[in-house]
Amino acid sequence: MIYTIIAIFLSVTILIMAITAIYSKSLVVAVISAGAVGLFASVVYLLLAAPDVAMTEAAIGSGLSTIIFFYVINKIRQNNA
Amino acid sequence: MEYIEIIGAVVTLIGTIFLFLGSLGLIRMPDVFNRIQTGTKATTLGTMLTLLGIGLIHLDWAGKIIVLIIFVLVTNPVSSHVLARAAHYIGIPLTSKTVVDKMAQKPAITVKKGDKLKEED
Amino acid sequence: MVNIILYTALGFVALALILTIIRFLIGKSVVDRVIAFDIMTVTSIALIGIISHFTDRVIYLDISIVYGLLSFISVIVIAKYFEKGL
User: Fold this and answer.
1) pLDDT digit string (tens) for C8-54?
2) Domain-by-domain residue ranges, chain A?
3) What is the DSSP secondary structure assignment for residue B82, as one 8-state letter?
4) How far is CA B42 from the centre of its chain?
5) CB–CB of B108/B89 below 8 Å?
6) Domain range holding B81?
7) Window 48-77 of A, Cβ < 8 Å to C
8) Is residue B30 within a helix (H) or strand (E), and if so which, with residue range?
9) What is the dihedral sign for C-alpha B56, C43, B15, B95?
10) Which chain B positions have a beta carbon within 8 Å of C36's beta carbon?
């Protein structure tokens, strides 16, 4: 019962973060919102009793993709300047 | 054996109250730097007390709990400090109640705008 | 007795997450949203700790360590991007 309530709350949070990532004007805010989607999806995977998938999602979806996106945005800014 | 579990649960409750107060300060503070300050201090203490309470309930998990507490204690102020320095560098405005700003008087920032007057005083 | 107190603690953590998400949605500058992201991560570490008590598994605490480490590196990279030093 308590797991269902927490999972529904985190899923609504994932939807809010994804809508923010689509409709925001700034590129940096969109990348941070995509990182927050991976961060809450990891907790949802953990509630569904899959710790290995949660660890992979936290490492790749939330951490590594944000770093690579910022590296690429920095390269684009250096080429335009 | 019964009492130490209840003590751990109460310590966890106090830690989550600290987390809630930190998030409340994140909404009510007027400035970016005040938000960084209240968020980091209250949230670090709240997370440490929560993990300590879980470690008191399950005494055989003590190794990982201690590693996690030391990790949060080291990394959270460092990231907050780097973020505050970057926010001052890109020119986030201070609130109107600010008394003194020591970092604005450095020559590396004033020379960049081309003012000759700022260097003399 | 222990479970009743920890259910209350879970309610406080959910309330803290809601307030942080409100700050993330209405934040004026970019730095506000980065602070909200950082505090969301630290609050989620406490949430995983309470969940690991209810399910009685110690492996969930390993995920918290990975979680905190990657969030720390991510915030450092964002701050270096703002200072044009990446």
Assistant:
1) 999 999 999 999 999 999 878 888 899 999 999 999 999 999 999 98
2) 2-80
3) H
4) 7
5) no
6) 2-95
7) 49, 51, 54-55, 58-59, 62-64, 66-67, 70-71, 73-74
8) none
9) positive
10) 26
Q: How far apart are CA A13 and CA C29, in angstroms?
A: 21
End-to-end CA distance of chain A: 55
Which residue of chain C is at minimal alpha-carbon distance from A14? C21
Sign of the dihedral through C-alpha B82, B87, B89, B90: positive
Q: Mapped to the 3 state alphabet, what secondary structure does C29-50 carry?
A: CHHHHHHHHHHHHHHHHHHHHH
User: For chain C, how far is it from start to end, CA to CA, in angstroms?
Assistant: 51
Q: Identify how many contiguous H helices and E strands chain C contains and give both numbers.
A: 3, 0
Q: Give the total number of structural domains in chain B.
A: 1
Q: Which amino acid is at A81?
A: A
| C-beta of residue B50 within 8 angstroms of C-beta of residue B57 | no
Within its chain, how far is the Cα of A73 from the centroid?
Answer: 17
Residue B104 lies in a domain: no
pTM summary value: 0.87
The SS3 of residue B58 is: coil
ipTM of predicted assembly, 2 dp: 0.90
